[in-house]
Design brief:
Distance between the termini: 71 Å
Number of strands: 14
Strand content: 15-25%
Helix content: 25-40%
Radius of gyration: 21 Å
Shape: globular
Largest sheet: 8 strands, mixed
Length: 343
């Protein structure tokens, strides 16, 4: 039996799975895992700090389905920053494959590599935020990266994996959305639509961005497992369509069944929002090509933007659940100034 362990922090998308050594897993059966049905048993262990439940019943999931899923997950409690504990606990169990979804710094990865010298694949969640801002878009995996990016630790991790001779694969999502999203991306729009408020959008609202559904991202993570084409490769993962900020506001309204929103544009330089974030996206064009993943992995997004947003709304916000309560304080600053200028 192949055993997989996932080290998870508090956020739903942040975890590290690892698969324990059994029968040269990736050299044979798992090389077919992403393309055909394979009769292999994989045991999953979540490594978490133990501050939150290790599993959560998804909206629409039956009690029986959830019980069957959760019964197959083992739990290893600890802190990934306790490097000695990570090394000893992982080495004692032994794992074939690592899924690292919450690693931000290379120093957090070194103990895992030290503990698992015979590991067969390290699958890493990076970010499209590593790319250097450019006038030439979309971003390709070969584009220049920004060594000063707030995601520079992810770049350093990719370099570390390569320098250690590990069989690694790195996925670079753009903006992730979907049910239970810890990052209030679509939720930011849904709060305002539900309250019947205008949507404040910076500058002209024609900035182009890109969102990818979490279920499509999860499929990509599965499809690189044991895939020889994915060895030592980086893949952008997101939706197939790009969208403007104004278009996204309208898409959220359409997906959730709200009237088309009133959109108010503003100049962010005219406001001091302090530490609060007035808009959930970078105020720039930001999108990436997914052609490489489509070509190498045979992966394509199953969700279009409207149906993906509808899936998120119907299974989460529309049921009355959300990650953060509504905060319209920055909106009120923007709208207040807009009313003064209009008068």
């Amino acid at each position: 039996m192949a055993k997989l362990v996932a080290m998870q922090q508090l956020q739903p998308c942040h975890h590290i799975p690892l698969v324990s050594p059994s029968s040269s897993l990736l050299h044979s059966s798992l090389s077919e895992f992403s393309g055909t049905a394979v009769n292999i048993s994989i045991q999953v262990t979540l490594f978490t700090r133990g501050k939150a439940p290790i599993s959560q019943q998804l909206p629409g999931e039956s009690d029986q389905e959830y019980a069957e899923f959760s019964s197959k997950i083992l739990h290893l409690k600890g802190d990934r920053k306790d490097f000695e504990f990570v090394k000893t606990s992982l080495a004692a169990n032994g794992f074939d494959v690592v899924y690292d979804i919450n690693g931000r710094e290379a120093v957090e990865v070194e103990p895992i590599l030290d503990a698992l010298p015979k590991m067969e694949q390290y699958i890493y969640c990076s970010s499209a935020g590593v790319y250097l801002k450019s006038d030439l878009l979309p971003h390709f995996e070969t584009d220049a990266v920004d060594p000063k990016s707030r995601h520079k630790g992810k770049l350093e991790t990719e370099s570390l994996l390569d320098s250690r001779g590990v069989n690694w694969t790195s996925l670079r999502p753009v903006y992730i959305y979907g049910p239970l999203n810890y990052n209030p991306v679509e939720e930011w729009f849904f709060h305002r639509l539900k309250a019947g408020r205008p949507i404040p959008v910076p500058n002209g609202g024609v900035q182009i961005t890109q969102l990818g559904h979490v279920k499509d991202l999860a499929r990509a993570f599965v499809m690189v497992l044991g895939n020889s084409k994915a060895s030592k490769q980086v893949y952008n993962i997101s939706g197939s369509k790009y969208v403007t900020f104004d278009g996204l506001a309208r898409a959220c309204a359409k997906a959730a069944g709200f009237p088309e929103p009133e959109i108010v544009h503003y100049n962010p330089k005219e406001f001091d929002f302090g530490k609060k974030k007035a808009f959930p996206f970078r105020d720039q064009h930001f999108f990436a090509s997914i052609e490489k993943a489509t070509r190498d992995l045979g992966w394509t997004p199953e969700f279009g933007l409207i149906d993906g947003l509808a899936d998120s709304y119907n299974l989460d916000f529309g049921r009355g659940t959300y990650r953060k309560p509504a905060d319209f304080s920055t909106d009120d600053m923007i709208l207040g100034k807009s009313l003064v200028l209009q008068s």
